[in-house]
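Task 17 of the worksheet. Students: predict the tertiary structure of the chain below and write it out as structure tokens. Keep your answer in the requested format; marks are given for formatting as well as content.
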Amino acid sequence: MLWLIGLDDTDVLGGRGTGRLARGLAAALAERGLRPRGVTRHQLLVHPDIPYTSHNSANCVAAEGEVADPLALFRWVCEFVAADCPEGSDPGACLARRQCVPSAVIAFGQRAQREVLSPGEAEDAAAEGRCLLAGLGGTCAGVIGALAAVGLRAGGNDGRFLDLGDIRNLQGIVSVQRLLDSGIDIVYNNQGAEPRPQERVETLGWVRPRLLGGRSVLLVERSDAHGVEWVVADRRHGGPKRTTDAAADEG
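Model answer:
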């Protein structure tokens, strides 16, 4: 069974980001016997009517394994998250089994990227979708992003991986095969050329695959400047292929 845990609004400006908390939660889940399947970051709507810390993104932790008592797991998750949230944050957490996430929750996640939503709407959608959802402090507005993160991760076509296998240890030039061995499903060039396992990729010290088609996909482009065949297309510090949220703080 694959379990999805959504988190949002766990931080305050200048403090530790939600991404770092999500990675810590993934490590703690591994200690409890579950197998982490990556942490994804999902960009939500940035709007004057929406309070957020820096970029209004939410995170989803995926973990695989048998869970006899989902409610007990969710209580533990809430305790773990609440213990790490500073005063002034408005955290929310959500737990759902991936195979049971309905289209209504996926649609809620997509709406959160283009509409201003309320905690009440999140609670209604969670109840309809049988997702466990809780506000953990402050205004509890984080329930919106927490549920949205679960929906977007379940949808399989949004966000990027902040953590997956050992991608955060990849630096400099590595082979395509090394990228695949790190936990990435596909190394892809959208211009039709298929990178071969022995070819080299300049990572620029930042490997963050996208979630596409339910898989982790690292986009690369031909390189003329780095002495290698390929360079990562999504880059943290600018460049022609910069993602819209590539400079965001991920913890």
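Marker's comment: Confidence is low (pLDDT under 50) at residues 238-249. The longest strand covers residues 35-43.
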